Amino acid sequence: RQELMVPRGGRSGAEDASRIHSLTHGTIHFRGIVALPAGLQVLERMGGMEAIQRHTQTLVVELMNRLNKLVHSNGTQVIEIYKSLSGTKDLGGPTVAFNVLRSDGSYVGYNEVSKLASLNRPPIQLRTGCFCNPGACQLALNKSDEEIIHNYTSAGHVCGDDTDIVDGKPTGAIRASMGKDSIWEDIDVLVSFLEKAFVDSTDACERQDAWDGVPRQVVLSEV
């Protein structure tokens, strides 16, 4: 297969020696190391990793079921779930990766979804892009090597940028993650947001009621 990744600083004779360092960011997380004993005690009090896994998998299955039930007024699906990047009963991992579709079948950019989610009340934090796994992302999105190269040469798309749609196709996805502290109400908030923001309803009054109480104008500033 063709090499689609280039180490930071380009290629050099010292590439192999610096490969690990290129993946390291800053100071070692010494506070996290110090907190390990307390963290392990918390996990033990909660019943261990098996109990947490049962809890998060229950939430993931419920979220996937509810996302699959979101449909536009013309009967088309609102959510496209990528099972290879998501967790199920058969495949571990408390995550659901998806993209949002309009009623005409076109994709909503994952950056648009993420930014609107952050303005929701309560705010929703979603991870977007390829989740630091470009190979799995390419397979999930069913993209060829030629498409990946085209996205770079035509749109300059690289990991971590804001280019979420190229030639009408997504360059990544949206990921919702469940953890030990996640609860049923978290799913309610996410599904309600997606329904209000992206489901195309034939009833204009119904859409208006869904947005009652939401600010009509939001001003953002750099902090």
How is this structure best described in words?
With 223 residues, this protein is α+β, with helices and mostly antiparallel strands. The protein contains nine helices and seven strands; from the N terminus they run ααααβββαβααβββαα. The chain has helices at 15-18, 30-34, 36-45, 48-68, 110-118, 134-140, 145-155, 184-198, 204-210; strands at 79-81, 95-101, 107-108, 127-129, 165-166, 169-170, 173-177. The radius of gyration is 20 Å and the shape is globular. The termini are far apart. The relative contact order is 0.14.
Outline of this structure?
This protein is an alpha+beta fold and 223 residues long. The chain is 40% helix and 11% strand.
Q: How far from one another are the termini? A: 43 Å
Low-confidence residue ranges: 214-223
* Class computed from helices, strands and strand pairing: alpha+beta
Overall shape:
globular
SSE succession: HHHHEEEHEHHEEEHH
Q: What is the typical, i.e. mean, pLDDT?
A: 83
Tell me the layout of helices and strands.
Blueprint (H helix, E strand, L loop, with lengths): L14 H4 L11 H5 L1 H10 L2 H21 L10 E3 L13 E7 L5 E2 L1 H9 L8 E3 L4 H7 L4 H11 L9 E2 L2 E2 L2 E5 L6 H15 L5 H7 L13
Antiparallel strand pairs: 1-2, 2-3, 2-7, 4-7, 5-6
Main traits of this protein?
two-stranded antiparallel sheet; 223 residues; 7 strands; 9 helices; alpha+beta; 11% strand; disordered C terminus; five-stranded antiparallel beta sheet
